[in-house]
Amino acid sequence: MSGRDFHFVMIKPTHYDDDGYPIQWLRSAIPSNTLASLNGLAEAARNRQVLGKDVRIHLHTYDETNKRVRPEKIARDIRKAGGKALIALVGVQSNQFPRATDLARRFLGLGLPVAIGGFHVSGCISMLDEMPEEMVRLQKEGVVYFAGEAEDGRLDDVFRDAFSDDLKPLYNFMADLPSLEGEPTPILPTQHIRFTAGSHSSFDLGRGCPFQCSFCTIINVQGRKSRFRSADDLEQIIRDNVAQGIDRFFITDDNFARNREWEPLFDRLIQLREQESFDIKFIIQVDTLCHRIDGFIEKATRAGVNRVFIGLENINPDNLMAAKKRQNKITEYREMLQKWRAYGATTYAGYIIGFPGDTKESVLHDVEIIKKELPLDLLEFFYLTPLPGSEDHKVLSSKGSWMDPDLNKYDLNHRVSHHPKMSDEDWEEAYRQAWASYYSDDHIETVLRRAAAHRKGRPGNKLFLMMWFKLMVECEGVHPLEGGYFRLKFRTDRRGGLPLENPLMFYPRYLAEIVAKHWVYLSAVWRVYRIYRRVKASPGRRTYSDLAIAPMNRSEEEDLAMIRETRGGAEAVAKQLRDAALSKAGKDRAKAASAL
Ligand code: SF4
């Protein structure tokens, strides 16, 4: 080895399906923000020549959801090129930890040093008194952990330690969250983007959140104090990406509406779009009170936001209180969704199943209410999951309650704990039926009719997205967010501990699966396409109206099932009226005082 070259291999691992094969696609759904952020930092470190003028730093990025990782080949290539190396398994979530463990062992066996970072490592170090067993075991085998964020020159230090064979067992920056302003911008090489459906790139503009939802890991990893990138940083990100031909972006901040710099950020995007004709589009995530922020939705859509993820989580105030999601007011949901609809944005909402007040019947009743009364386009369901790093996990751990020991299942698409009221079977059945009910042909038709009734409704786009969600769940057995097009499976990549299958069994079955799935895809698409054509051809499509999209006054809203039939709905309305009266009285007092 020459010692004058340093290879930094960044791998975002996937996780295993129920048969033990890594979930991989020809085209995956969403590119990894962590990979983009770390690659941006690594490029900056290379440009600054942090290992000295005579050391060439080589960067290699792998998103395992769309690119197979072959440790033996990577090791061979590094050996051939010469020099030292560090394998970084990045952004590893709890459900990806078993896959990261298998990869780490293979790289260690090939004599390459391995570091693991991401939400599992950071969350466990932040919330648990002791490192969990699986982490301790791997650390003893030689894996290095990185907890916290890599900005502020921290990656440079890791490079230097790796280059001088002096890596520490743990880099712990949890107590010191860096500022993001002026930090290198997240960027991924174009070939990654080509392997994502819709060719989106992703980046974050802020980290941290002031709220305290008990199921959330973000607040315990990224902190409750929000930190932001500046409008100049944002412009740089856009220009760098557009120069590579990338103009569709997913801004990964969990709650962009609480980014106090939202307005200058949107203004800069508006300027790029309206004065320099940048054809850029964005997906953002917001909370249910974003419509109360003056001008937020108007500016968001002018800035190019055309899809919005909303953390609805539940429509029962008692469940929201139990999860400390006090900021969600069900009385605001309709108005907020109607406003996004008026501005032509497609709305997605997350709905968590398994809060303490839920029963199978109540969950399915809630789904019916949402279908009827909320003008929502896409709904995605999740099991309430005690993710390591969340308050829920800490509480269950301290009580010694059962949690599934297989971290691979902590993908929000598997049940990993018991429910206080529902049997395991009822909980799983409620989850399955909720998906089936929302993505039934009848409801797809309703969503298309609502879209066709609005001049900015884009029913074709809604149809595509609804079918994507439906088919990922029904055909592929994965959550839509980790889905993709054309499932790849490699016989020899099976999960450690499971036997390798006989090729004569594996390949014919894989082929049969592909044929069967494509048959289901085609027949489902043909069926809903006929619905779409019917909706588009309907002469009265512009005048269609229903309970979800019709304008209503406050007293009519009080009659909605979402208010009358949810647990705590009526109290929520009473509180809203009380708050409004108090706020009005305050304003009147201030007005009277200023008139004196
Ligand atoms: S609003 Fe989102 S990021 Fe903030 S605490 Fe709740 S779940 Fe976490």
UniProtKB/TrEMBL annotation:
Cofactor (UniProt): [4Fe-4S] cluster
Keyword tags: Iron, Iron-sulfur, Metal-binding, Ribonucleoprotein, Ribosomal protein, S-adenosyl-L-methionine, Transferase
PANTHER family: ANAEROBIC MAGNESIUM-PROTOPORPHYRIN IX MONOMETHYL ESTER CYCLASE-RELATED, BLL1977 PROTEIN
Domain Radical SAM core positions: 195-429
Organism: Roseibium aggregatum
SUPFAM superfamilies per record: Radical SAM enzymes
GO CC annotations on file: cytosol; ribosome
Keyword RNA-binding: no
Xref: InterPro entries: BchE-like, Elp3/MiaA/NifB-like_rSAM, rSAM, rSAM_horseshoe, rSAM_sf
Protein's UniProt name: Ribosomal protein S12 methylthiotransferase
GO molecular function: iron-sulfur cluster binding; metal ion binding; transferase activity
